[in-house]
């Protein structure tokens, strides 16, 4: 019995490494398919975007208006995200807002604010007939597409010195925030209570208050969080990108983070799962990307900083002259940038912490610089507008009925001073 017991111990000692090896093999064999599947999924996500971009064709092209103008900003009515889209609103360099039917691109309405300059355009989230724009006369104006009147149905007034050049409305349509140009030493984020917009009360609304200490130059962009209605991020020509929680009692407590892009900010947005990341583009075509969820950790918050995207992205047989904006694609958990050429080509660029890479290019649509875009993730369609005065709707596999391409419409008329100029020379970029 004793001999048998000792023999059993000897067997275990001698063959224990073999047993471990077999167990490890089984463990590896068991979990290897999961690793392969996950890698394949990641590849498929990017490949899917590439296929979608490759299949995009011009479905509709808006008719040129009597007064051609640069198309500077685009928004679609929010119920559009649930496949019930009705309207597209476009802000133009001739100080007007134009509204189109989203599916046909037929012109519906035009709202003008002469002599003020309209900056940006946004639909209310809960009502697809309410559209807003900030104005250089110190107001944010609201129009109701259902009404025949060409006048603003509601006006949110600022303070006498305010010149608004950026704005946004939060997720639950409760708060409007607008950013000002610097006047003397002052620059402001101005807030209003937006409740009642769906009733379109005609009374002028006064501000709830302002933030005045966080920026020291023109506030060029404002973007509320896509999910959390109290979170907002602002960008300025002072190079700073500030994130706020406006539920706090004062500006100092509200300021969550300050990120420095080291250049004048031209575009900002939220990205990442639960939208805990912030990114920006600059007027000299730089790109910065931060993870503000890392603020209370020892991990660095900067995910990527590219001084000049034009030098960082390789475009074979073409070039990249400028950036238009960014898009976080929820389905694939990927951040993309949109850029282009002066001849109207559009480049889609994928962002990763290891750098930027070209996904694909759309050609043959625009004949001049593209200034604005809006991507509807529901049907993967893309709206683009540019300096050729054209509004284009791109859809996967679409066939444009009118094959007669419009001639180049590079507009010679004067454009509002806020329109950015894309410099291509290194000398201009350094200056």
TrEMBL record:
Listed SUPFAM superfamilies: WD40 repeat-like
**Stated name of the protein:** WD repeat-containing protein 89
Q: What keywords tag this UniProt record?
A: Repeat, Signal, WD repeat
Q: Which residues form the signal peptide?
A: 1-21
* Residue stretches of each WD repeat: 111-146, 363-395
Record has Protease as a keyword: no
